[in-house]
């Protein structure tokens, strides 16, 4: 029996593939390479010494998805594949809705047909919207502020409805906080195309000299130093969380939304300082106006993940920055 990892050549998917391979599972990856490179497969092999079966295919292509299920015995799906850039989702919403939602519908239909009813889905802390108080707890009211967030919220609802219609399903909705860092080998990590939107890749770009200076979006929030606070989580901790979620769905039925975060928040300036320490470089920055759609603070309640999965993050911010820097230095060397 194999585990199918959709979006497995992407940032979080590649680290999770390594985690499953190291734990002895047979892994099959499907990815259309729209936001990742095929070379990642070699890196995964270098790290684990193991082969991964790869299908270059789009989840929107039902025939291709059916082929994967007809050629393999798949016991569970870890579903990462999706488009994830918030700003882009505002510009091309139809593409986001089509890719993320239709892709998931087709996947679920094919899974149902092949009697594979175990899924771990990549949701996001973005579903907590703008009006909840921190720490975010799984049963808080949810909302979306952009098309990307809407796709996550809609898919959560679709998967809940699916379970109501067929109680054999077992689904974990993992709400990630802010994944950063890279594999300790420095071989895989996050390498966004073009100018990064997220904080860590931007800070790394300034540290390497590729970008001139960081714009800090607002220093007048009600936080420790006025800059935005987020729950940064090491991507390797996140990957380990998927293994625990997989074990959980294999032993239970139902749908559970679970936060994957550290429960600790760090401000933009604290991240800048930690990155400077890890890299030995100066990260130039200037204070800029707030970014539309941002909230002051976002961090997780980790109680449910600990209770259900027996999982908690172990790597601290310094380690996240060190590993990020090792990967960035390798990519730029
Ligand atoms: P990523 O872009 O690195 O990986 C996603 C992968 O999915 C890419 O390799 C891409 O080529 C592939 N893909 C996209 N659409 C596809 C399709 N229709 N068919 C086949 N493959 C397709 O992103 P990531 O950071 O690894 O995120 C993985 C998942 O986690 C996404 O669903 C994302 O929305 C979610 N998430 C990410 C973050 C984050 O900060 N990185 C936070 C919360 C949630
Ligand atoms: C963003 C997305 C969120 C998504 C998450 C992970 C928005 C509004 N939200 O979250 O939906 O789930 O990424 O992909 O895009 N910052 C700067 N300067 C920068 C970049 C960021 O000061 O150049 C600040 C932000 O204001 C924020 C913090 O750094 O306080 C983190 O920002 P970012 O990495 O973009 O993540 P989020 O906004 O938390």
Task: Describe how the helices and strands are arranged.
Elements (H helix, E strand, L loop, with lengths): L1 E5 L4 H12 L3 E6 L8 H9 L4 E4 L5 H10 L2 E6 L6 H6 L1 H21 L4 E7 L22 H19 L4 E7 L1 E3 L18 H10 L5 E4 L11 E2 L1 E3 H17 L2 E7 L5 E2 H12 L5 E4 L8 E2 L4 H7 L7 H16 L1
Parallel strand pairs: 1-2, 1-4, 2-3, 4-5, 5-6, 6-11, 7-10, 8-13, 9-14
Antiparallel strand pairs: 9-12
Helix pairs in contact: 1-2, 1-8, 3-5, 5-6, 7-9, 7-11, 9-11
The site of uridine-diphosphate-N-acetylglucosamine has 21 residues, from α7 and β8.
Query: Which CATH first-tier class of the domain at 2-180 and 232-261 would you pick?
Result: Alpha Beta
Order of secondary-structure elements: EHEHEHEHHEHEEHEEEHEEHEEHH
Largest sheet: 7 strands, parallel
Radius of gyration: 19 Å
Give me the side-by-side strand order of the main sheet.
3-2-1-4-5-6-11
> Would you count the extended β strands for me?
14
Q: Outline of this structure?
A:
The protein is of the alpha/beta class and 333 residues long. It has a domain at 2-180 and 232-261: Rossmann fold (3-Layer(aba) Sandwich). It has 11 helices and 14 strands.
